[in-house]
Design goal:
The protein contains 6 helices and 5 strands; from the N terminus they run βααβαβααβαβ. With 191 residues, it is of the alpha/beta class. The protein has a single domain, classed as Rossmann fold, CATH 3.40.50.1240. Strands 3-2-4-1-5 form a 5-stranded mixed β-sheet, with helices on both faces.
């Protein structure tokens, strides 16, 4: 039986094992927290929902970000496949840094960072324009894989999955206008 459509499923990784900061921190401390967050895998109690495992278990092609939390999540979602871990699918590089002395909560730094980054006011590790170009490149790679395998699972990160989703819509794929960003959230695109 042949499949008459192609499917790309974007999934956000499980919750990180790196603990959130419980006190107010500076911009430099926020940047260091992100570095440590990127080095961490997923929390032992962060398990994918059973229905997601059922949906992803037999995916013929699995790709993911090469950051530990994405690789560990891909392994849980599709244990019979060795995922292709690529830096192409890493989270967009947006954290603030610098000598700002103000202390904010981790959540507030994240919001400030996203606000400034999406408006092009900070570039940090990667400008919003460069991240959008990389997301288009990632979308083209997923489309190529979908043409070869019919169904593709991509385990990545909240912000970057959202950029890939927009790129897929721009390439004529059908799916929701917004990518789900909660841990273990899945968003599917078809053509």
């Amino acid at each position: 039986m042949t499949q008459d459509y192609q499917e790309i499923m974007l999934v956000r990784h499980g919750r990180s094992s790196h603990p959130p900061a419980t006190h107010r921190i500076t911009a430099a401390e926020f940047r260091m927290w992100i570095v440590d967050y990127n080095r961490a895998g997923i929390a032992a109690d962060s398990l994918p929902p059973p229905e997601l495992i059922t949906a992803t278990y037999d995916m013929p092609c699995v790709v993911c970000s090469d950051l530990p939390r994405a690789m560990a999540s891909a392994g849980l979602l599709s244990p019979n496949h060795v995922p292709r871990a690529l830096p192409l699918f890493r989270e967009a590089g947006r954290p603030v840094g610098g000598p700002w002395r103000v202390r904010l909560s981790l959540t507030m730094w994240d919001r400030v960072s996203v606000f400034l980054w999406t408006r092009g006011l900070i570039a940090s590790d990667e400008s919003v324009d460069v991240a959008r170009m990389r997301a288009r490149e990632a979308a083209y790679e997923l489309v190529r894989l979908a043409a070869e395998f019919s169904r593709v699972l991509c385990v990545g990160h909240g912000m970057f999955n959202a950029l890939i989703g927009r790129a897929l819509l721009g390439l004529g794929w059908e799916g929701p206008p917004r990518v789900a960003t909660q841990h273990w959230a899945a968003t599917t695109y078809r053509k």
